[in-house]
Design goal:
With about 400 residues, this protein is mostly helical. Helices cover about 80% and strands about 0% of the residues. It is built from 18 helices and no strands.
Length: about 400
């Protein structure tokens, strides 16, 4: 089959399966994104490649995956821009002691547990080609992340967005994601130090300098875009074209600096003017295309890289340990900190459940880790299952801990 026809067949098949599984799992109260995550795994070697290997190889031959990878990476870059765009620093204001204490605990507890777990996993699932420092930092960062976009949609669907619990959850998730991406940037620099043409201190210096320029001079320059939009009353196609160029340029710079392109895209979104006309127009232009087309492609590509068959023997026990550590660190740390800061135990455990939602953001981090060579394919598969398990448990646990009758302003 010609390359173009095969790619079109792959995209069509992925979209159909993603929407179908999303609808089915929605009948059980799960969000669409969980079904799309599951669909990606079902299309990979873990199921389709296992039960119908001939069909799987015909639809996803290894030589064709480069095209699918490129499309998923482009979609991922623009999705990370939207994540940065939706992270509004104003959400952190007025949350007081509760948000401050809980956000720190929800980062520190899972990070420390992840780093301790790295001591046990490194000799079993890694080797000397990977720096232990990078491996431990990655495990800590992967355990610390929260799926900010998924969490925000869950809160909105349950009418919790304007409650004290919802406000604290949004603030904590914003802090957690920024912290996790900073940690992952450090992992990328350490992991690529050996193959880089410049010394490690210069790589760190370049990244810090770029972040400083983006947060000061570039942010100041983007204020002109805001004035143009205010004067015209709308975001023109020329302005959208400029934003697209800005996203790609920022992603290119961070990739060239030795870290992943997604960091540049995320930072590009974070420095955009917080004007409702700009953010609203950009979300409207990009959101549907991301959700309907590019994210299912990313989930499918992740699923094609996930082989559950690599988890065998005692590795299943270690997979269970990974899930338990992830839940204990994120949910337990957040709940205890929330209770200590004045929330009730019910609100504390509900907050911990929400913070334990890893979803898409975890898959992004895992793919970056696999691309960098920090984690092995077997550990990648185990961590993907952890991301799926922690996301699946959120809705039923939240309904049990904090049912609709308990919602109050």
């Amino acid at each position: 089959m010609p390359d173009v026809l095969l790619l079109l067949a792959q995209i069509a098949g992925i979209l159909v399966v993603a929407r179908l599984v999303g609808r089915i799992i929605g009948l059980f109260g799960q969000p669409q994104v969980v079904g799309e995550m599951l669909a990606g795994i079902l299309l990979g070697p873990s199921l389709l490649g296992w039960v119908a290997p001939d069909v799987w190889l015909a639809l996803f031959p290894p030589a064709s995956l480069g095209f699918l990878s490129a499309l998923s990476q482009i979609g991922l870059v623009f999705f990370m821009f939207l994540v940065g765009l939706e992270l509004d620093p104003r959400q952190l204001r007025g949350r007081g002691h509760t948000a401050l204490l809980t956000s720190h605990a929800s980062i520190i507890a899972p990070f420390l547990l992840g780093a301790l777990l790295a001591l046990l996993l490194y000799p079993r699932l890694s080797d000397d080609s990977v720096e232990f420092t990078a491996f431990a930092l990655f495990m800590g960062a992967a355990m610390s992340v929260t799926a900010f976009p998924v969490l925000a949609r869950m809160l909105a669907e349950r009418g919790l967005l304007k409650t004290r619990l919802g406000a604290v959850a949004i603030a904590c998730a914003a802090v957690d994601d920024v912290s996790a991406w900073c940690l992952l940037a450090a992992v990328a620099v350490v992991a690529r130090a050996g193959e880089a043409a410049v010394p490690l201190p210069m790589m760190f210096g370049g990244v810090l300098l770029y972040a400083a320029v983006m947060l000061t001079a570039v942010r100041w320059g983007l204020a002109r875009l805001q004035r143009v939009v205010e004067r015209r009353g709308e975001l023109s196609q020329d302005a959208v074209a400029f934003v697209v160029f800005f996203i790609l340029a920022s992603a290119l710079v961070t990739e060239r600096l030795g870290i992943h392109a997604v960091f540049g895209a995320f930072l590009a979104g974070a420095v955009m003017p917080r004007d409702e006309k700009i953010t609203g127009a950009l979300l409207e232009r990009f959101h549907d295309l991301m959700v309907i087309l590019f994210l299912p492609l990313f989930f499918a590509f992740t699923g094609l890289r996930t082989s559950v068959q690599l988890i065998s023997g005692d590795l299943w026990a270690w997979c269970a340990v990974v899930i338990l550590v992830a839940v204990a660190g994120k949910m337990g740390g957040s709940a205890i900190a929330a209770r200590a800061s004045g929330l009730s135990w019910r609100e504390g455990w509900a907050l911990g459940t929400l913070m334990n939602t890893r979803g898409l953001m975890e898959l992004v981090i895992l793919n970056v880790g696999l691309d960098l060579g920090v984690i092995s394919p077997a550990l990648f598969a185990m961590m993907v299952l952890m991301a799926l398990a922690t996301t699946l448990m959120t809705t039923p646990l939240l309904e049990r801990i904090y049912p609709a009758a308990a919602i109050r302003d």
